[in-house]
Amino acid sequence: MCRLMGVVTRAPLPLTEALSDLAAPFTELSREHRDGWGIAAWPGQGTGLHIVKDTEPAFDTRRWDHTLMGTLTDTALLHLRLASPDLPVVSGNTHPFTVGTLAFAHNGFFTPYDALDELIDADLLAGAAGNTDSERYFLRVLTLLREENPVDALAHAAAEIRARTSFASLNCLLLTEQALYAYSDEDPDSEVSRRRGPDFFQLRYRVDEDRVVVASSGVPQPDGDWHVLPYRRVLEIHRSSLRVSVHRVAHALVKQI
After folding, report:
1. CA 157, CA 218: separation in Å to the nearest integer?
2. 248: which of 1, 66, 91, 232 lies 20 to 30 Å off by Cα?
3. What is the distance between the alpha carbons of residues 118 and 193, in angstroms, rounded to a whole number?
4. How many CB atoms lie within 10 A of CB 247?
5. 173-222 pLDDT, tens per residue?
6. What is the C-alpha radius of gyration for the chain, rounded to an integer number of angstroms?
7. What is the residue-wise DSSP string for 182-200?
8. Prior bond of 96 cis (ω within 30°)
9. What is the residue-averaged pLDDT of the chain?
C-alpha cells in the first residue's frame, strides 16, 4: 500500500511551490511508506517527461528534497512505496512505471499478480521492468490505450482486475502529455480496508484558481476544500486549461473475459 499525489498548475513552478503546504506532510508519510519513491513531471511544453526514482525512504535522502526543489513543472505525479510482502525493493518495482510519454502509479494490490498477463500485448509484457501487480496493471492499461481513450482504458482495466483477482485497492494515477488522470476503487471487505479504516483508500482532489491537486489520505484534506473522488470514477485534469472532469464509465464497456 502506497501513497499518491498529483498536481497540475497553470504555469510551471518548482514542485515545492506547486505542492506548497502539502510537501512536508506528504514527505512525512514516507516514514511508513519507506520502500522507495518516484516522481514523473512535465517540465514544460516541448520537453520530455522527467522521471526520478529511488529505493531509499524519501524522508531520509537529500535526493528527494533536491528533486522537489529542482523540478520546474506544470504537471507532476508523486509516489511513496510501501512494498507488498515478498516483492523486493528494487528499481524495477519502484513507481511510477513509464513508457514513452506515459507514467503510472498504483496504490493497493491484487493477487495473483500475473492474472492479467494473457490480456497484455506480448511486446509490452516482454518489456516489464519488475514483477509487481502494479506494473501489470499499467501494461494492461497500455494495451487498452492502443484502441481506447485514457478514461475508458483505466476503467476497463480495473473492471478486469475486479473480475479476475482478490484486491484491496485499484487507486492509480496516469500521466499523459495532455492530462493527469486519477482512478478510485477499493474492496471495503479486504483485510487491509478493514484494518486501515474506511477512509484509507479514498482519493480526494482540490481545485484552486491556479492549481488542482489529487492525493491519497494522510495529508491535510479539510472538508470544504477537498472533494472525494467517488469509487469507480475517473478524474481528468487537463494541463492546458486546468479543466476538471469526473467521468462515470458504463460497466457495459468491459468485454467478456
Report:
1. 26
2. 1
3. 28
4. 16
5. 999 999 999 999 999 888 889 899 888 999 999 999 999 999 999 999 99
6. 17
7. EEE-B-TTSHHHHHH-TTT
8. yes
9. 93
- Indicate the length of the chain as a whole number: 257
How is residue 69 written as a grid cell?
526543489
Q: Which residue ranges form the domains of the chain, and what is each CATH number?
A: 3-253 (3.60.20.10)
Residues 104 and 40: their CA atoms lie apart, in Å, by: 9
Residue 202 CA, distance from chain mean position:
13
135 within 8 A of 97, measured Cβ to Cβ: yes
Count CA within 13 A, CB hemisphere, residue 82: 13
pLDDT tens, 120-146?
Answer: 999 999 999 999 999 999 999 999 999
Q: Supply the pTM of this predicted model.
A: 0.95
The torsion region of residue 155 among left (phi > 0), alpha (psi -120 to 50) and beta comes to alpha
Of 173, 174, 170, the closest CA to residue 192 belongs to: 170
DSSP state string for the chain: --EEEEEEEEEEEEHHHHHGGGHHHHHHGGGTS-S-EEEEEE-STTSPPEEEEESS-GGG-HHHHHHHHH-EEEEEEEEE--PPTT---SGGGSSPEEETTEEEEEES-EESTTTTGGGS-HHHHHT--S--HHHHHHHHHHHHHTTS-HHHHHHHHHHHHHHHSEESB-EEEEE-SSEEEEEE-B-TTSHHHHHH-TTTT--EEEE-SSEEEEE-BTB---BTTBEE--TTEEEEEETTT--EEEEE--GGGSPP-
The pLDDT confidence band at residue 85, using thresholds 50, 70 and 90, is confident
